[in-house]
Amino acid sequence: MTALRIDALPFPLERFGPEGGWTYEDGALTGTAGPKQDRFVPPGGDALEPASDAPRLLGAAPEGDFQLIARVKVGFDAAFDAGVLYLHVGEREWAKLCLELSPERPTVCTVVTRGQSDDVNSAEVEGDSCWLRISRTGGAFAFHASADGERWTFVRVFTLGTEEERAAARVGFLVQSPTGEGCTASFDRISFRPTAPGDLRDGS
């Protein structure tokens, strides 16, 4: 299937998982999850249980530090519907930064999967949109959220995989609807910076 190119990104995006109907028009990337589609490995379950799956659009990030930024808008309908910035370093080593209906209020949520997934809620969000940012800083990754794309709130810092896996990380976008009949999310104001934030906790 033909890769999708976005002007702001220095790498093409490839489709993974179920069909997401991805389109890119007028600066906005849009994708749709089908009924009960998610990307999660329940903690405490069978370690060999396959991960559930949701539509993803991912590209290989260049070497070194970076920031992937987008304003995410979600057509919320059912609990845990979400638009997601997604990081992939291995089949069971991946992470999600979500704008999610969790379960009744739009909330910034994170999932880090190391064999099995954890699940953490951050701040509630007013309305149906929020800016999200994934960064690679040295051997770690960081998640931030923002109401305006200018001042950023620190959400989480973590590492995944081996040094080689981290260097070959794929980043991009995901849409999910774990309990619902489908969800559409759009991502605009997309940008990519070949640097890490100057300080993870000072709002920059």
From TrEMBL:
Region described as Disordered: 24-48
A Pfam short name: DUF1349
Designated name of the protein: DUF1349 domain-containing protein
Taxonomic source organism: Streptomyces pratensis (strain ATCC 33331 / IAF-45CD)
